[in-house]
Amino acid sequence: MEQWSWPPSYDESYRPEIAQRFWFPRRETMPAEQRDEAILERIRQVMEYAWNNAPFYRRKWDEAGIHPSSIRSLEDFEKVPVVRKEELRADQAEHEPFGSYLAAPPSEVKHINGTSGTTGRPTAFGINERDWRSVANAHARVMWAMGIRPDDTVLVASPLSLYWGSWGAYIGAERLGARVFPFGAGTPGQTARTVRWMKQMGVTVFYGTPSYALHLAEVARDEGFDPAGLGLRALFFSGEPGASVPAIRSRIVDAFDAQVYDSGSMAEVSPWMHLGAGANEPGVLCWQDLVYTEVCDPGTYQRVDYGCEGTPVYTTLERTSQPMIRLLSGDLTRWEAPSADRGRTYPFLPRGIYGRIDDMFTVRGENVYPSAIDDVVMAADGYGGEHRIVISRESAMDTLAVQVEYKDVPESSVDSWAGGIADRLRSVLGIGARVVPVEHQTFDRTEFKARRVVDDRDLLRRLENTP
Questions:
Q1: Which residues does the UniProt record annotate as the domain AMP-dependent synthetase/ligase (predicted)?
Q2: Nearest to 329 by CA among 311, 303, 354
């Protein structure tokens, strides 16, 4: 396959002809079984490398009775124990600053990214120059599949901070040869300025979160601009579900009159665009030659059959500084078999990553995912742009309420409008939900990832346990 070597090395001068559909034609379209043979060999190389250079993995596999030489098939690889995020955090706490799963000399680390640490100990990503370039080349490939070309101007509209997403989009666009506009987000008044700069700079491609794109469309209208007239021809997203959720996707398409592409997995396994759309449609491909993805049963961590739902488990195939080998995501998806009809012969996630197992909540015995509520609410005519999902408890009974902003709905019709949404939610969720209409602009907008679920039951439990 083109540029298939270990450790990874790319020809930085290479770029396909503008009209070429594929960055690496053979690698992206070959029979999946042939690619799997090469992936198996690469997995063995990565495991051998980690065994020799990362004490974290040697300890873990020793305890499990696993040695890289024992992996003779992808089925054998399923016996390798999964790695959990909490293990990585604990290992970094014991082996600062990058953990004992750093497989390159600390002196080679030239870039530091990581998590913010707002919900616990932050996780540091130590990235050597080889990995930085590998991520850039990988993201350029996926962005090329999205139709992004060197004559585009790409707006990176998420914070340029520790967040890997912004930098991954930046270096991918840069490697592809596009003009990169790292405007970022997060300061007061920034979004209104973004709108004007987009017009001034001739931005053609947007990167950010779906929530921020919808917020940008609202601000553009408030500033007297039609979002569809900003000149965007494509938007690609990561960071949260949405770009493959029909109602959210439709709102973005309608607002900007542009093509929409989903992408994104976990920062720990960058290149995170290894889950990335290859066409202007919902869903993402699993670019298996970049990060090997298994959709697994959440209990056994063995692969589920195509057509089934499970949680992704990721193995990086090009990382040398902090390789991730069977990292458990905790996300939720459903996968389909590779098909040449999609152009690229990778497995396909038709709804992308549509939730996290730990985001699921149970109300009166029914499992509910926030994205299912988002899809119903945001598809409603008159939806005002934001909503909140509130789970509470009355006596021993859980209750579900959805506060929904409305706009351009006559006051005399608001109750019936809310009742229609409640009926659709009951049909989709299998339980009743009280829909509470609230005025437009009731809720704050986000310039990053939306947090819409409020579970008051936790507070009630704490109060009940207080002496």
A1: 104-275
A2: 311
CATH superfamily of 1-357: ANL, N-terminal domain (3.40.50.12780)
Per CATH, the homologous superfamily of domain 360-464 is: ANL, C-terminal domain (3.30.300.30)
The domain spans of the chain are 1-357, 360-464
**Which of 193-197, 315-319, 371-375: highest mean pLDDT?**
315-319
pTM of the model: 0.82
User: Which of these, 294, 313, 320, lies nearest to 305 by C-alpha position?
Assistant: 294
Return the amino acid letter for 203: V
pLDDT at 465: 44
Per-residue HEC secondary structure of the chain comes to CCCCCCCCCCCCCCCCCCCCCCCCHHHHHCCHHHHHHHHHHHHHHHHHHHHHHCHHHHHHHHHHCCCHHHCCCHHHHCCCCCECHHHHHHHHHHCCCCCCCCCCCHHHEEEEEECCCCCCCCCEEEEEHHHHHHHHHHHHHHHHHCCCCCCCEEEECCCCCCCHHHHHHHHHHHHHCCEEECCCCCCCCHHHHHHHHHHHHCCCEEEECHHHHHHHHHHHHHCCCCHHHCCCCEEEECCCCCCCCHHHHHHHHHHHCCEEEEECCCHHHCCHHHEECCCCCCCEEECCCCEEEEEECCCCCCECCCCCEEEEEEEECCCCCCCCCCEECCEEEECECCCHHHCCCCCEECCCCCEEHHHCEEECCEEECHHHHHHHHHCCCCEEEEEEEEEEEECCEEEEEEEEEECCCCHHHHHHHHHHHHHHHHHHHCCCCEEEEEECCCCCCCCCCCCCEEECHHHHHHHHCCC
Could you tell me which residues come within 8 angstroms of residue 338 by beta carbon, excluding any fewer than 6 positions away? 32, 345, 346, 347, 348
Between CA 360 and CA 140, with CA 296 as vertex, the angle to 5 degrees is: 90
Region 63-68: mean pLDDT is 97
Q: What is the pLDDT of residues 296-318, one digit of tens each?
A: 999 999 999 999 999 999 999 99
